[in-house]
Amino acid sequence: MDRGTVGSANRGRLQVGVRTEGRSEVVTPVGELDHHTADLLREPLEHAVEQGRARLVVDCSGLEFCDSTGLNVLLGARLKAEAAGGGVHLAGMLPVVARVFEITGAEAVFTVHDSLEAALET
User: Fold this and answer.
1) Distance CA 21, CA 121 (A)
2) CA-to-CA separations, 108 to 13, 19, 98, 105, 116, in angstroms, rounded
3) Which of 5, 49, 53, 81 allows an S-S link to 25, with CB 3.0 to 4.6 Å?
4) Helix orientation angle between 38-50 and 68-83, rounded to the nearest 10 degrees
5) Dihedral angle over CA of 35, 33, 45, 24, nearest 10
6) What pTM did the predictor assign?
């Protein structure tokens, strides 16, 4: 990862895919999740809950970076999903991203799975 681009205004650093799989809405962010790219993830998460798909699985296997803004997006999605009777499941976090959740204690409020497959099985 080119650390020189972290914090830049290049919104192309994050791509977000969305698909429905069974009873889950699978959201796949790829790249860097930070202040400049957070809305690219926030919008599909909120849209899914608004459409009645409150079981959100975030496939983090392609997420290379996550700062506090990104963490807040996921925490906000968790609150909305739980209010709608669902929840947020995080899957396949790379060590650098998992460390952010560990340091902040956020891992305790999410259901974390080693892989996307494991998240979809529950």
Assistant:
1) 11
2) 28, 26, 12, 6, 19
3) 53
4) 0
5) -170
6) 0.89
- Given a contact cutoff of 8 angstroms between Cβ atoms, the answer to whether 66 and 84 are in contact is no
How many whole angstroms separate alpha carbon 33 and alpha carbon 27? 13
Amino acid of residue 17? G
Q: In Å, how far are 23, 44, 60 from 54, measured between CA atoms?
A: 9, 12, 18
pLDDT tens, position by position, for the chain (122 residues)?
Answer: 333 344 444 557 999 999 999 999 999 999 999 999 999 999 999 999 999 999 999 999 999 999 999 999 999 999 999 999 999 999 999 999 999 999 999 999 999 999 999 999 98
Distance CA(74)–CA(52), nearest Å, equals 18
